[in-house]
Write a structure and sequence with these properties.
alpha/beta; Metallo-beta-lactamase, Chain A; 8-stranded mixed sheet; 13 strands; 31% strand; beta-lactamase; zinc; beta-lactamase activity; RibonucZ/Hydroxyglut_hydro; Metallo-B-lactamas
């Protein structure tokens, strides 16, 4: 019995650990919204956009949390799914959403912005994004970012910063230094991705812009692309090579 007890204890611990890992592997799934953990205080939110050229596209955003506060990068693709995300964070988890940041003017970034405004959540975007949203007669972010902005979230800070043209000429990225997580948005491609939609792109500047991102955050550990699978700094290298004008 003395020999069996340690083995039984290990089996129980292993089973508990496996259950714990499973419960942490998926934070929320509704069919139209998926929230998954990246690090202890960062998550991706994924919603879906029906497009003419690429079909039903999964679109990523980032949630940064600390001390029951949250900052969200990019809205879900429409107001209905944005309301799901807001309700989950505020009603189910008891979080206060400090801000939402749109990383460029396309629908996969601000398609659900009106829902955030209805909940009195302040929105931020590159000044150029505000201009482009007004041109397109869509919901306009409230506060302009000129080059960069640090936002408080709990006892930590998260950065929104413009590095240059790429997927669009207004695209910005988000960086959470405490956990070395970069939200590249549509400026950064998942491994083996195609060049994707280029209708508003500057393909000659894209590689140089991502090189600047890589140089600014040399300690990055996790990189979240606008579409596809999370990775590390290899996503930056892949994107640089994909749009390298010397090739």
């Amino acid at each position: 019995m003395k020999r069996l007890f340690p083995l039984l204890l290990l089996a129980v611990v292993a089973a508990c650990n496996n259950k714990s890992e499973t419960s942490r592997s998926l934070a929320l799934e509704t069919g139209t919204l998926l929230v998954t953990p990246v690090t202890p205080n960062t998550f991706t939110h994924t919603s879906y956009l029906q497009t003419q050229d690429f079909g039903n596209v999964a679109c990523n955003g980032m949630i940064v949390t600390d001390n029951k506060e949250a900052v969200i990068f990019d809205t879900p693709t429409d107001d209905s799914v944005s309301n799901q995300l807001i309700s989950w964070l505020t009603d189910s988890l008891g979080y206060t959403i400090i801000a939402v940041v749109a990383t460029h003017f396309h629908n996969d970034c601000l398609g659900g912005l009106n829902a955030f405004h209805q909940h009195k959540i302040p929105s931020y975007a590159n000044a150029a994004t505000i201009t482009l949203a007004a041109r397109d007669s869509v919901t306009i972010p409230q506060n302009a970012i000129n080059d960069s902005l640090w936002l408080n979230v709990g006892n930590k800070k998260v950065l929104a910063r413009y590095f240059g043209r790429g997927h669009t000429y207004d695209n910005i990225v988000g960086y959470f230094p405490d956990e070395a997580v970069l939200f590249g948005g549509c400026l950064v491609k998942e491994i083996d991705a195609s060049k994707g939609y280029l209708g508003d792109a500057d393909t000659t500047a894209w590689s140089a812009t991502v090189r600047q991102v890589k140089a600014a955050f040399p300690g990055v550990k996790k990189v979240i692309p606008g579409h596809g699978v999370i990775g590390d700094a290899a996503l930056l290298d892949y994107t640089i090579q994909l749009f390298d004008i010397k090739k």
